[in-house]
Design a protein that fits this description.
Strand order of the largest sheet: 1-3-2
Low-confidence stretches: 120-130
Protein name: MarR family transcriptional regulator
Shape: elongated
Number of helices: 3
Largest sheet: 3 strands, antiparallel
Number of strands: 3
Strand content: 5-15%
Order of helices and strands: HHEHEE
Structural class: alpha+beta
Oligomer: single chain
Helix content: 25-40%
Length: 132
């Protein structure tokens, strides 16, 4: 038989137990990714090899900061090695997610493009299973 005066039932849930009504937000001085970013675009970039998605998200970040679809992309500022970032950018270009204007001695200008319709962007889509 349970005690009707159990004080543990009356305590307020801790911060970790309390469900959040909204996702966490950035602080005023912190960087953030401006959206909306089309989910189809993210799915297509996620199917690509290596760091293509990371490079693509940096392009979306720069586009949000500059409020422009065509942005210079400084690959040396990425956390990944420069050659890895370059391969990711090439993968995005081959998949039709970005167009790249390369200029000697200057950062490439990346233009974000709409994701191609269907699962043909990047690697073939995996067969659907019951659990996912």
């Amino acid at each position: 038989m349970s005690d009707p005066f159990d004080l543990s039932k009356l305590r307020e849930p801790s911060e970790f137990e309390r469900p959040r009504a909204r996702p966490p937000r950035h602080r005023p001085w912190e960087k953030f990714l401006k959206g909306p970013v089309p989910w189809r675009w993210i799915e297509a970039a996620a199917r690509l090899p290596g760091q293509a998605l990371a490079v693509g998200l940096v392009a979306w970040y720069e586009a949000g900061c500059r409020k422009c679809a065509a942005v210079p992309l400084n690959l040396s500022r990425l956390v990944v090695p420069r050659r890895t970032a370059h391969r990711g950018l090439c993968a995005l270009e081959r998949a039709g997610l970005v167009s790249v204007d390369r200029r000697k001695g200057r950062p490439p200008v990346v233009t974000l493009l709409p994701a191609p319709a269907g699962p043909s962007a990047g690697a073939p889509e995996r067969a659907r299973t019951r659990n996912g």
